[in-house]
Amino acid sequence: MATFKFLLYKSNVKRDGLYPVCLRITKNRKLKYISLDMYAREDQWNEEAARYKKDKRATPNYEKYNALLTHYEERKDSLLRKFTEGRVDWTLNQFEEQFLGVSKRGKVYDYFLKHIGILKETNHIGNAKAYERTLHVLGKYDKKINERLFQEIDLKYVNAFNVALEKDRCCGNTRKYYLKTLRALLNKAIKDNEASRITYPFGNGGFEISSLEEETRKRYLLSEDLTLAKNSYQDDYTMEYTRRLFLFSYYCFGISFIDMATLTTQNIEKLETGEHIVYKRQKIKNQRGVKTIKIPVTETLREILDWFKANTPLVGNYLVPVITKNYRGEQLYNHIRSRYVRYNKNLKKLGKTLGIERLPLTSYVSRHTMAMTLQNQSVSREVISQVLGHTNLETTNVYLDSFETSVVDKVAELL
Fold it and tell me: CATH second-level architecture of 223-412?
């Protein structure tokens, strides 16, 4: 049997004679005091009624304070009913956590900031930036986002947010990005008991994020353009350095820029068949069951690595010359992002220098070209999926479906 009482916590008096107003819980001969962020002097408090005295001269706002205490009492009763219905033999700490958790529920903006802070503290900088970008966009659309409660983020709100993004000429894939991030935050908030499923705007009958997906043009080099990139040595140092980074990505099974940038000598391992670059993709390395990607260090790759070692200022034990200082955490992430922007600008210049007119060179082109090359050589999609580092074949199928045109071309010849 548990007992509850509002009282003044006499063991912690302030200099002005005010005592904290607490909820005291007694269960199994153990005590727990929960501070309610309210204060009173002894002459303001009615011990028997467990409320502020009805005296406006002593406490001008006693009605407001007593109403708040009644609200806390209702919350306590509601929580006890919940425990009883669930047949939960609750502990004092469990009661305190849920009692205070209920009082703190609801603020979307605060929860965003809290989650972003946790991600940064645990060095998930890229993920934190995704939430920061989404919160920034929400703030542009919703001037009251600082005060918005989770219960207000319903289907009507999400539909309006999507329309606002569309009016700002955001493409479907960009809108999908922001709404997926918002959905992930809502799911976590529900799990943390900060939000309710009652107003959840996604799922069955809710907003369908998948409907926003647009097929993007697959950016790969034709074989003659790939040959140009492989064999056209550049006299300009920046262009040659850029060309070799592009080819390094291509020969490393289309490794992404951030994964390429963070490779070190520790990623090179000797296996039964020789030296390999072994790593997990930054994008999914924290997911369950993610496998390592093993790239054989071929003679071509070795030549590129040797060129980097002889001609570029490698920092520490990094394999490629992207990171130029010993940064950590968010500073490192921002450094790589700035180098990524510069790399793509240089790739566009390189493409023009090589006379590649079909498409502008970007960091993604090396990855897409690698996948297309393997498919044209009749490599199975299961193998392509493995070297791309995809966690399932469905992702690879979406990635490759619009690549292959040779079969359609042959069908057209039959007409």
Answer: Orthogonal Bundle (1.10)
Structure tokens at 92: 């004092």
Retrieve residue 190's tokens.
């529900």
Q: What is the pLDDT of residue 104?
A: 46
The residue whose two tokens read 């793509």 is 344
Number of CB atoms found within 10 A of residue 391's CB: 15
The residues with which 19 forms a beta bridge, in sequence order, are: 40
Q: How far is CA 287 from CA 40, 235, 282, 299, 394, in A?
A: 51, 43, 10, 33, 17
| Nearest in space to 120 (alpha carbons), one of 339, 279, 259, 328 | 328
Three-state secondary structure call for residue 232: coil
The pLDDT tens digits for 243-284 are 999 999 999 988 999 999 999 999 999 988 889 999 888 877
Whether the CB-CB separation of 34 and 22 falls below 8 Å is answered with yes
Which one, of 240, 365, 358, lies nearest residue 308 by Cα?
Answer: 240
Q: How far apart are CA 257 and CA 322, in angstroms?
A: 9
Cβ contact 293:279 at 8 Å: yes
Q: Mind listing the pLDDT tens digit for each residue in 294-317?
A: 999 999 999 999 999 999 988 889
How many other CB atoms are there within 10 angstroms of residue 364's CB atom? 18
In 3D space, the residue among 139, 123, 143, 214 whose CA is nearest the CA of residue 182 turns out to be 139
Residues in the chain: 415
Nearest alpha-carbon partner for 189 in 107, 100, 78, 288: 107
Torsion of CA 70, 75, 80, 83, to 10 degrees: 180
Biggest alpha carbon–alpha carbon distance for the chain: 99
Query: In a 3-state reduction of DSSP, which class is residue 162?
Result: helix
Query: Taking the C-alpha atoms of 258, 264, 270 and 276 in order, what is their torsion angle to the nearest 10 degrees?
Result: 30
* 370 within 8 A of 254, measured Cβ to Cβ: yes
User: Looking up tokens 């090179």, which residue turns up?
Assistant: 268
Q: Which helix (H) or strand (E) holds 295?
A: strand 293-296
- Predicted pLDDT at 85: 86
